[in-house]
Amino acid sequence: MSDTDCFIVTQDTAFRYRAAAVIHKDHHILMAGSKTFPYLYTIGGAVHVNESAEDAVVREVLEETGVQMRVDRLLFIHENFFEEEFDERKRRWHELAFFFLMKPENLENIHASGVNLRGENEFLEWVPFERFKPDGTIFPDFLPRMLTEHSEGVRHVISVDEVHRFL
Q: Is the CB of residue 17 less than 8 Å from the CB of residue 46?
């Protein structure tokens, strides 16, 4: 298996295939953050070439929390189109992310051990459902909705500049 990320950067654009974990307990979701980014985000990262999204999320959770977890199920697929700076250049991003609901085990052993795209150390924070608002401080802000809505199967969410469409 290759350790090359499914991540393409051009002069003006970036594409990333990402696997993300939804780890929740008592109406809180475990989120990551760093000093550089002004928002919290889900635990996860780029899928490697020739790696399944499910294997990637298990690997990322272990790397970022120090705890081995299993996948419960695929919760939703998120196509996200946004603009953000990377390598000191503003780019138009297209991110395809598979969000997996994880089986929380050994939560008392969780510790921050991940790094972000810029190689900076991350921290972890349990965020109560009530703090998820469309104010740009937690992304994606619709996570509690995905956990509390009773829908059949996997949802498809498309976001364009933080405007969400649920399919």
A: yes
The answer as to whether 2 is a domain residue is no
Domain count, the chain: 1
Place of tokens 């089986």: 103
Separation in Å, CA 116 to CA 35, 40, 60, 73? 10, 11, 11, 25
Whether residue 139 lies inside any domain: the answer is yes
Query: Would you say residue 29 has pLDDT above 70?
Result: yes
Write the pLDDT tens digit of every residue in 109-124: 898 887 777 778 899 9
Between 69 and 36, residue with greater pLDDT: 69
Task: For residue 122, give the nearest of 18, 35, 21 by alpha carbon.
Answer: 35
The predicted pLDDT at position 1 comes to: 41
CATH number of the domain within which 108 lies: 3.90.79.10
12 lies in which domain range? 7-166
**Which residue is listed with tokens 């120090």?**
66
**pTM of this prediction?**
0.92
CA geometry: angle at 147 spanning 59 and 69, to 5°? 25
Closest by CA position to 95, among listed 114, 75, 112, 117: 117
